[in-house]
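During the first year of the project, the team set up a workflow for recording each protein of interest as an amino acid sequence followed immediately by a discrete structure-token representation. This format lets reviewers and collaborators read both layers of information side by side without switching files. As required by the reporting guidelines, we include two representative entries from the current panel. The first entry is reproduced here exactly as it appears in our internal archive.
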Amino acid sequence: MKKALTLILLMASIAMATVSDISNTANFALNGVTTEFTFNFPIPGSDTSQIDVILVTVATGLSETLTETTEYSIAATNNDFSTGGVVTTVATYSSSFSLTVVRVTPLTQTADLSTKSSVSYASLESYFDKLTMMEQDRFQDLSLTFKAPAFDSGTSYTVPEAAERANKFFAFDSLGNPIASTGGITGSPASAYGLTVTQSANAAANRVVIGLDTGDDVQFAGITGTTGAFSGLITANAGITLGADDDLIGSATSDITINTDKFTVAGATGDTLVGGTFDVVGNIDPTSYETTRGGFLDEDAMASNSAVATASQQSIKAYIDSLIPSSKLVVKGWVNFTGATATINDSFNITSVMRNSAGNYTITWDTDFANSNYALSICVPEVGGATTTGNISSLSDESCVIITKQGTGVLDFTPIMVIAIGTQ
């Protein structure tokens, strides 16, 4: 009796650890910096092979199980895995990835107890802990499986045998029982044509199957620029968006029409018809326009003499500038100046006005005349009712000398005006 009491008291005095964390999984978002990841669930003993470290690509959901030692290491918390541990990855992973640490407890029992052997309380507890962890692992697995609610007891969830469900879809009949279906929510098989569409090897083969290259009309909610060729009518209800390097090309006989008749490029003739305002942001290259039916010409000499083509601003200016030197109808130089000081008030094609003496002036042209056979007009104001005149003393291609008089005497007038016409 005394020995039994001692045993009971000894057992009562030992503190028993518990497995209180029911999770066997820890998930981590990555940031390209952190390499240490702490998990709080226990593992049996110190065997780190019971831990799987899984790297997941966020965008695709594809996963990869990393290899211990070469890609990560595991250390116990305070040298004891009963409260978890720390996974340290060799590499850093960006936010494009996530990390999952999961316990996978082996479904084995390695203890061999005999009726006469002694067993420590710690050993017994480790056996019970492992059983608890195994149960937790199975619970986690079951939580990720397909299952029916508890009240749905009248339905059979046994799937058809392999031969019946091969190459078919998992579906449910009208009673909610699983069936192997070839398509459709009622279990109706797909048509032979439907199977050829879904089983096409690639997009090009699929276009042939559904007849896009046979002239059928195709209607889209919107078209974004991409590589591809279509025949027949294409209607884009939400607009056509083309990228920087994309082209919208019609055949030699087909038209490209935008908003009915608002903008049309005729395939047969190449004519562009605009039914509204035609706004151009940027420059128009004159050389890219056809001229046989009008278009845009850039000819400095106006050699084509077209009755329908539009000339460029530059070509008009160049043509007019080319006419001025040889024209005998255009004023080639003029000046308005004060006689007493030879100060120029305004002028055109004048280099200088020099007062040689009272009423005697030399006017020098900026652009010379072709010769001295040009016409000169001199105007002076009337003074005191007496006769005033402007006279030519001499002409050269570079300059002229004029004399202004009142009666027979020379006089400085204000203003004195001179105009010259001739060939330059």
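The second entry, processed by the same pipeline in the following quarter, appears below.
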Amino acid sequence: MRSIAKSTRPYDKDDERDLVWAEAHESLADLFWTRRNQMNWGAAWPHYQQALDWWAGQREIDHARDRYLKIVFKAAEPPRPNEYYFYTYYGNYIPLNVLENALKISTSDNDRAHLHFLIAMTMRYTSGDWETRLLKNSRKVKLVTTIRRSNKSSKSSGPASASASRTSSCPIQNFSLL
């Protein structure tokens, strides 16, 4: 493990990174994510991300696509899921931009369907359930409406009251979010 970690450290510049560097990062990520009784997503993801970034910049399109998708699918599922496992169960969600990039480069219908599922589950995990999203959006709408009403009333009352409104309390301070 120390030799793998050493092989990834000295390459601070993008032009010094090579296949060995990318594979070392993927191996470190696998060490943290796929090892028995480990499953440390927080330690694994930065290494997966480095490897994905490297593969995204390669010119050999077919090989890079295969490796990129392989890493995404490997990161999305632990090596030994139990019968109750679902994507994000262990807090392992892949950022939407990575999943959207994978969707853009995927060529098979099966990969696209799998990626659509991962995107939906990531959105669900990061945004909450439907009711929570509706509640958040309704709060935002109420806040924007309150601010607009406040702005309209301060504009209609003219410049004389503008100096008075600067000293009065902000309408947002009186706004309650339930």
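For the second entry, the following points were noted during internal review. Residues 131-174 form one domain. The chain has eight helices and no strands. Both points are flagged for discussion at the upcoming steering committee meeting.
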